[in-house]
Q: What sequence folds into this?
């Protein structure tokens, strides 16, 4: 087996085609779904060492509790703040939960 990869060679082209095929197969057979919005928020806050009490992103303590327990839905302004502060993609936060 040849270990030297030369740009533009037949081996390089074959390897590129195989990697594209594997990627497409994985996307179809094993799709990665977005996480639950509330779980994403909790996970990201944990990663950033933010407790629910320390964070002011979601508003007052009672509002944070309602949101993180699923009793209250995220508003558009909350989604914008979370996207900015926690770097969670908006497409994750706008999902139904």
A:
């Amino acid at each position: 087996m040849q270990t030297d990869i030369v740009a533009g060679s037949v081996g390089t082209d074959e390897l590129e085609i195989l990697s594209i095929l594997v990627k497409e197969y994985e996307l179809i057979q094993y799709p990665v779904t977005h996480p639950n919005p509330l779980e994403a928020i909790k996970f990201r806050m944990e990663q950033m060492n933010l407790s629910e009490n320390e964070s002011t992103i979601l508003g007052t303590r009672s509002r944070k509790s309602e949101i993180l327990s699923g009793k209250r839905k995220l508003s558009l302004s909350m989604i914008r703040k979370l996207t900015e502060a926690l770097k969670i993609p908006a497409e994750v936060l706008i999902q139904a939960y």
